[in-house]
Task: structure prediction
Amino acid sequence: MNPYLLGPLVVSGITAFLALLIALTDRVVNNYGTVVIDINKGKKRFEVKGGAPLLGTLASQKIFVPSACGGRGSCGACKCKVTSEVGPVLPTELPYLSKEELADGTRLACQIKLKKDIAIEVPEELFSVKRFEATVSSIRDLTYDIKEVTYTLEDPAEIEFVPGQYVQIVVPPYGDLDEEVQRAYSMSSKPGDKGKVELLIRLVPGGIATTWVHKHLKQGQKARLVGPFGEFRVHDTGATMLCVAGGSGMAPFWSMLRHMEAENAHPDKDVWYFFGARSLKDMFYLDELSALEKRMPRFHFVPALSEPAPEDKWTGETGLITDVLDRFIKERIPKEKGFEGYLCGSPGMINACIAVMTNNGVAEKDIFFDKFA
Result:
């Protein structure tokens, strides 16, 4: 063997052995027995075996706290408020917690080891979150980099959700991925289709879940989903909705709009939907949304291309979607009902839209968004 390789291999072997020894010692010596988890001041209460992380233990009791990284402490999603003493905040938690959250007792559930009784507070809507077994019933290419994936839930399972919420897909080990992970995607389904979940998934170079969906997922394959999660939804007021999205940010709005038509939901709300793309090849659902506009007079669809190609023969709005939004607010949209903003997309797009809306008199408290990580 090459002597230059021998040293690193020996060190690697010793490190692995020590890690295993520490884990075994902790399991044998630190027997924490039974501990009690009290949730929301007694709303739910479990006796569980101690020693495991809070996140996984809650999942074993069918309380699913959002987590994208599988409990490795690298996403910061599994936040909960701890109202009992559980020890100091770990260095792995600090990057994900604000000063206000630290002062309020917010912690990452994946980083808390259950060593004694614990009291926590979580949003009560998590009590209705479930893990679903499903089959991939269809996969359709909407553009060169966006797929519409439909999952049929195994009978008799049904999902109850509010348009705008999301689920997490469970990605199994593949390639260099040695453990399952979860990633969040907004549902584009109609809530009335309780036996199905529809997602719009754009391919992100290097993305674990998007690569899995675009390169490996097949029709007929078994899958698992966890949800629903999220607070993004239509507010029950009479204010006009200013909706802005691009790419797979279409998903929550496609759910909201179809629900509004099917159930005549929020009948007093007018809706202006601005959808931006670079060129025609990035656009989808144009025919469907144009048809919906004809069937639902209070809905107005404004697609725009920022860099239309000559072969696109585009006759619609052009320019950045923020510029189109600004122009329509100033010149085209009636102001009598007031405005609410609804945004779904990248942080940059959302921040730019918020600036346009607030500059046009929309209060920040009336702007709601689903921001991609």
Summary: The chain has three domains: 34-126, 129-229, 240-371.
